[in-house]
Design goal:
The chain is mostly helical. Helices cover about 45% and strands about 5% of the residues. The chain contains 9 helices and 3 strands, in the order H-H-H-E-E-E-H-H-H-H-H-H. Helix 6 packs across helix 9. The chain is globular.
Length: about 180
Amino acid sequence: MTGESTTAPAPAGAVAASGADVLRLADIGLQAPAALLAEFGLVLAPVPDGEPIPGSYWGECEAGLVGTTVYARADTPVHSLLHEACHLIVMPPERRARVHTDATDSVAEEDATCCLQILLADRLPGVGRDRLMADMDAWGYTFRLGSARAWFENDAEDARAFLAARGLEMVSDPI
């Protein structure tokens, strides 16, 4: 998607093999992420270590989604869990029930998802937007301004407007 604000995360195998050191669910536990997702009517379903993650678009340790359930293992990156959950949060409710694996509907929705995952990171103890943006960059998310922070701070107006239009302005507060 050259020229667009964001693209999807890089495939887990490509980046994980390079040794990206990112925050994972094992580092923060399941309780806080499960409570955060529940606020939006979503369920966090833990997957046993070594088992395939249902609904994972990228495979490996990346979070998956089926309907209103987000699946993750202990080795799932926090950014991946938030990204997939935010896809469900920003999409119209009538689409949620039909979602399986691929949630992207448009560039605008992808951008709003990236913006919201950064904002919601502040609501997870031990995470925060600074760490999440660094992890997004380390994992291979691509932004036309070169980094998650540059995009979020200088080019995310459309994403914030998208969130506000869907009644998510309570989490789209300014930088």
